[in-house]
Structures are given as C-alpha cells and as structure tokens.
Amino acid sequence: MQYAMLGKTGLVVSRFALGTGNFGKGVQHGGAGHMVDQQQADAIVAASIEAGINFFDTANVYGSGFSEEILGRALGAQRKEVVLATKIGRRTSNALIDAGLSYRNVIAAVEASLKRLDTDYIDLLYLHISDPLTPYEETARGLDYLVQRGLVRYIGFSNFTSWQAASFLAIQQQNRYASFVAGQMQYSLLERGIEYEVAPFSQYAGLGLLTYSPLAGGFLTGKYTQENPTGTVAGREGRLAFSARASDREAANAIVEKLHEIAAHREATPSQIALAWLLTKPYVTSVILGAGTLEQFSDNVKAADLSLSPEEIEALGSLTALKEIYPYLLPGGGRDRMIERALGHQGV
Fold first, then answer.
1. Pick from 262, 294, 263, 289: which is nearest to 278 by CA?
2. Is 103 among the residues known to form the active site?
3. Is 339 helix (H, G, I), strand (E, B) or coil?
4. Number of domains comprising the chain
5. What is the domain range of residue 63?
6. What is 40-76 written as a DSSP string?
7. SS3 per-residue string spanning 260-287
8. What is the pTM of this model?
C-alpha cells in the first residue's frame, strides 16, 4: 500500500480509501441492487485493513444512515487505528430543517453521526455539498465549534467549485476558525473536470484531494464495450455512466479499448489500470474504492502495486484530455519564457 500526507496536516493516510456508500440494508436508492450487509462489510473492512488501508469513508445519508452503523461495527476495536471520514449537509429526513449547513444542522448532524458510528470523534468531516442559503460564516462557526469540542479533528469539502472552496477557506482563515484541509471530488479517466480549477487550487492552498467514482460508475471496469454497451455488471450505475457519456462515446470506447490493451500486457485488469492511472496524479492524495463484494475489493486494491510507464500514462490521458477552453488553458499558463530561462527552469 502507498501512503501520503493529508494536505498540510501531519496525518498519514493510505492512497486507497474504502468507500462505504453501498453499506446498508435492503435495496439501494433507485432500486439498483442489494446493499452490503453487516457480514459482508465485516469481511471487506477486515480485508482493507489487512491490505494496509487506514482510511475509511462514509456519509450520514449512505444507506439511509445504516452505512455509518455498519462501518462502526465492522471497525470495532480497530476504530482508533484508522482515519474515519463522514459527510453532512444532505437531507436526512422529511423534517424541513434536516438538511443544509446551518449552525443548528451542522451540530445536530455530527452528533447523530457520532452515535451511529459509535465513536467519540470523527477524524475528517466533509461538507457533502454546498448550501446556497446559509452564509459561509455560519457554517464555518459551527465547524470550528465541533473542532474546539474535540468531536471533529479535521474538516473538508465535497462537490464544491473552486471559488466556493476558496471563499469558504478565506472566511475560515480570516476568523481564525478551523480551516479546510482537504476536498473530495469525483475524478476518473472519464470525468476530469477538476483539472481545470479544483486540482490546481488544492495544490496552491496545500489541501489534500480525495477522489470518488474512480471507475466512472463501473464503465471503466471494461465490461462495457462498443459491442455490449449495457455491459454485464448488475445495477444501474454503470448503465447510467454509459448513457451519460452518449456524446463522448467515441472517446469512452477508445479509453476502454486502451485499458484492455494495457491490462493484457500487464496481466492486470482494466479496473486496476484505471485506478493506477489516478495514483500517478500528484494532486491526488487518496482514491476511494467502492466495493460490493470482497472479490471486487481484493481485485481493485492490487492497483496499488502497479507502476505505469510514462508512455502508458500519456496514452491513457491523451484519449480524454480536457478541451482548451478560456481562461483555464491559456498557452503557457501565463509563464514568461525569458524569466523562466533566467531562473534555470527546464523545458522553456
């Protein structure tokens, strides 16, 4: 297993984290397949720890709250040996005020998560989504209160734009509140939007960057092909991933073909190659692995041992490279060649 520091903190985390969005009971929201029950979760969590993973991710809305309960039980006495992250902010009940990032809801949501997780503290608390109605100052004050009480160790954001994260961070720093140390965003070979601003901002601000949906909802497992667009994977996520990419089908098919090609040469799986590509990105702290079965987890975690060549990295990246749109990708990025030569920078 590979490890990294979480942003500018002293916290060491594994470069693969276990995501528990499918831990729960019954059927997932939308009718897509069965959730991972306690017995299955126990086995997956145990295998994760054995593989060297010390980073576990959940949210108060996953499995209608059961994900936190199941994860807490699965960790048991090992809870204090790992980094435990959860998220708040999305609607958790039909009560009008049980959503958003008001001071009231920030405190109440964390207190409820602590009970479900059966723990005294949360290592990393994310704001699951931005709240356009609540002033950032109010939310930031609530987060600082939780840190001062020792109920939360570190805080971060999820699904924010770069300007939202930057504005929130400025308010935290101005008021000397506990500040963001990390962000969690969707990122894969088929979803690279964070490369425009979020990733550069995270590097500039010294924030950790955790990424979810690394296999694009199952599409990058290689089971979805041009000949078999519905795939052989059960559930709606992979089908949605493909239909959502209808306008990019040519690129999507090309990336799957290249994943198969490199995987065959490496005696690996397309999933492992797609995950290994993410680990090459210097701004990615940790990649969150979802697992519906122990076998799926055991297969995917092997990507930590893969080291792609520069040629393989370039071959994959070039197929889904971002479009050069103003002002994100100005030629040279505003660099002055004369100054850079004077400073001895290479490649100018």
1. 289
2. no
3. helix
4. 1
5. 3-322
6. HHHHHHHHHHHTT--EEE--TTGGGGHHHHHHHHHHG
7. HHHHHHHCCCHHHHHHHHHHCCCCCCEE
8. 0.88
CA–CA distance, 89 with 126 (Å, rounded to integer):
9
Q: For 77-117, what is each residue's pLDDT tens digit?
A: 999 999 999 999 998 888 888 889 999 999 999 999 999 99
The residue type found at 134 is: T
Given a cut of 90, whether residue 280 has pLDDT beyond it is: yes
Cβ(290)–Cβ(19) below 8 Å? yes
- E-strand ranges in 191-329 read 208-212, 286-290
**Does some domain include residue 345?**
no
CATH label of the domain that carries residue 87: 3.20.20.100
Non-local CB neighbours of 247 within 8 Å, separated by 6+ positions: none
Q: Considering the candidates 3, 62, 204, 212, report the single residue annotated as catalytic.
A: 62
SS3 of residue 126 by DSSP: strand
Put residue 158 in one of left, alpha, beta given phi > 0 → left and psi -120 to 50 → alpha: beta
Nearest 5°: the CA angle 307, 9, 112 is 105
Cβ atoms of 191 and 198 within 8 Å: the answer is no
